[in-house]
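Example 352.
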Amino acid sequence: MENRMTEKKDHSEYFERLKAAHVAALWTIPGTLAEEPTLDEVPHVWKAKEIFPLLHEAVDVVDLGDDADRRALNASNPKRVFGTSHNLVAGYQLVLPGETAPAHRHTPSAIRLLLEGSGHTTVDGEPVLMEPGDLVLTPPMTWHDHRHEGDTPMIWLDGLDVPFVRGQHAQFAEEYPNEALQDLTEAEDVSVARYGAGMIPAERTWTKNHSPLNKYPYKTSKESLLRFHESEGRPSTGSSMEYVNPITGGPVIPTITCFLSVQEAGTKSRAYRHTPSKVFCVLEGSGYSIINGERYDWEKHDFFVVPSWHWYEHHANEGEDAVLFSMSDRPIYEPFGLLREQTADAVPAAKN
Ligand code: GTQ
Ligand code: FE2
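Predicted structure in complex with 2,5-dihydroxybenzoic acid:
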């Protein structure tokens, strides 16, 4: 009798014909039914001490306005051609005293976290004053330009959803007429006046799907975080608060949610892992994070990426409490049932 088990036919000619017909045999693609995500990103720290000098060197390389709309260095994950994670890109941007970056708008959203100096970003006609630690939003298709009248260089952290938007084939951008700064049609920080105190105007005129606040001032955010931390009995595992759209309680931008966390000197956080990716930026203090069992040191103004589904925990060094800002692509996961989150007391030992 014929032994069907040991009989080996050569099917290579069949597979050639599948290829020519642009179909793939599901039983040969293991990733389709993979039990855990396959990643094209790794943890990495971008050090202010290394990148700020490179950013200052860019002054000799590009003239703002003439050669380039923006003088920014975007962080590419070591495992990717573009993108700090698969959905987010972070980087540093520099504007010198007296310089302007012309107005434009685009479908990708951006958040800015001011690190050094001060100046203005105008968002849809509203001049927003940026000071250290302030979170400033430029939501999808809002006109924005940057200008700086102060006397020291202004550097901030950019955070955008460009990899996600490009992946959806939804990237569009346009220049403001004459590559100029936009007209100022609103008073300075008017969105903070209208929406910045846990109240909203009784007459509800806001209809957009992003936060009506263009700025979350650091003074308010940090005070709020520290009061919360105090009210919880100053847990040694630290405290975190999420920035919200004051109308919906949802994320500040449809694709990006932001957090501010405090970790007291000499203490460590709980461990977390989740499907969304996260970029952390150090506003105060220094320390290190354990990400999937490896140690990543950080200090003031460094930023680092925690890829999807990686266990991580933060340790603040002795001497100064650490304040970490973070942004996450979590809002992209939630509507599709893709959000998975776990916590533990400590990062589990790495699997062999
Ligand atoms: O400041 O408008 O890092 O449009 C990338 C794209 C900054 C900006 C970036 C941008 C901007
Ligand atoms: Fe932009």
